[in-house]
Amino acid sequence: MRSPHPPLAGGPTGADALRPLLDTVLDALRGGAADRDGPFPAGGPEDVAAGVRQALGEVFPERGAGAAEALHRIVHAVARGSADPADPRCAAHLHTPPLALATAADLAASALNPSLDSWDQAPAASALEAAVTAVLAAVVYPGAPAPDLLVTTGGTESNQLALLLAREHHAHRPHRPGPAPLQVVCGAAAHHSVRRAAWLLGLPEPFAVPGTGGGLDPAALDGALTELPGPHLVVATAGTTDTGQVDPLADLADLCAHHRAQLHVDAAYGGGLIFSDRHRALVDGLDRADSVSLDLHKMGWQPVAAGLFAVADRERLAPLALTADYLNAPDDTGAGLPDLLGRSLRTTRRPDILKVAVTLAALGREGLARLVDDSVNTARSFADRVAAHPRMELWDRPALTTVLFRPIGADDGQIAAIRRTLLTEGRCVLGRARADGRLWLKATLLNPHTTPEDLDRLIDLVEGSTPR
Ligand SMILES: *Cc1c(COP(=O)(O)O)cnc(C)c1O
């Protein structure tokens, strides 16, 4: 006798099938976190991998172990061996602790499994995406007559779209004929995905404008746009990955207008500031860009992925239009079925908008702003503590939520070793960044529950690992 097939997540009985499995998952998550007992698994890559292999046992056995056993064993092992951004001592990257409510919503996305490449696979989810993206487009571009916004996997995909659409926009402008390829111009600290996107799209190597701290300096950009043959796409950054610096967007927008250059702002990190009355001014001019990248899996507290790509004018998205008879036949579209294929370069696509919609509805603009404001405050408070500490050096006041610091007297090799020691001991997770020719420890503070005591503890941990 063959055993029956495993139950499905959907249908009238799907929720009942899920409930005991979810209990198993939640128990394994709780147990794994308790066994790890800290922000990071101790022991280094060999120990972690050995633990995972042991829990896995036979990866693909002839006879399966069954749902409860496999779920518990593997989820527990991954939880125990995870870097946990919900622990205040896990502060290396733009690795946001996701909100429980967004994570719960993400479960519904998996259970319902709508795919946003055609309306007949996602009737409600596509309507939800249309409604929410329209509102978010207007938040990024208040007052623009026809803004639009796509959901992406993150800044990398958004930046790729930005370069692709800038290339196509240039190609389709009749008053700019000629074979000259689009020249991307950015700051030295622009995200590596900009360079990769240019490579992928067959564009010339982006020109990195020299400037202090890798930011886009308006005077230097003016010189570059005057000298370099166009057409140009300027890529500014609102929140660099290493230091959180924000380029002077309004000045750059003036320059782009003057030189007739297109402007994309990579606000993957800093875009979240637009939700905050207190900090919005720092990204003044964002809405003058032709396009904007913004990651809600950073300053939006969503589980990965929740990337957004906004354009000032929806006409810019026209090159993405595509017809595939099985997904959006012209007669179906003519009969009123929404045509979704031009909303992404992907085909099958998860409804990442579901968790975003739930978060916006649950927290409101005010609630989201409070998360942003408190994170900025936490970073400032951490910088104050570093600055006041007799044995610590602060690189600069944080623009967003990134603080670079180092023990006074330590050399670059020691800084790198401190980071690795804390990591392999599982005591804390800090990043590293090079600034002004020196290596620094980097704390990226995005945990709204972090307390002043947690910040003191971070500094104590670094001090305790510093060689005397
Ligand atoms: C994180 C980041 C990216 C890359 O985004 P992903 O979501 O990792 O693809 C691009 N640019 C900046 C400024 C970033 O901080």
Structural class, by secondary structure, is alpha/beta
CATH class category of the largest domain: Alpha Beta
Helices and strands, in N-to-C order? HHHHHEHEHEHEHEEEHHHEEHEEH
Tell me the name of the CATH homologous superfamily of the largest domain.
Type I PLP-dependent aspartate aminotransferase-like (Major domain)
> Given the structure, what is the number of helices?
14
Low-confidence runs of at least 5 consecutive residues: none
Silhouette? globular
Strand order, largest beta sheet: 1-7-6-5-4-2-3
**Count of the domains:** 3
Question: Strand content of the residues, in percent?
Answer: 5-15%
Gap between N and C termini, in Å? 69 Å
Bound molecules: pyridoxal-5'-phosphate
Estimated radius of gyration: 24 Å
Total beta-strand segments:
11
Mean pLDDT over the residues = 96
- CATH level 3 topology of the largest domain: Aspartate Aminotransferase, domain 2
Helix content: 40-55%
CATH architecture of the largest domain: 3-Layer(aba) Sandwich
- Main sheet characteristics: 7 strands, mixed
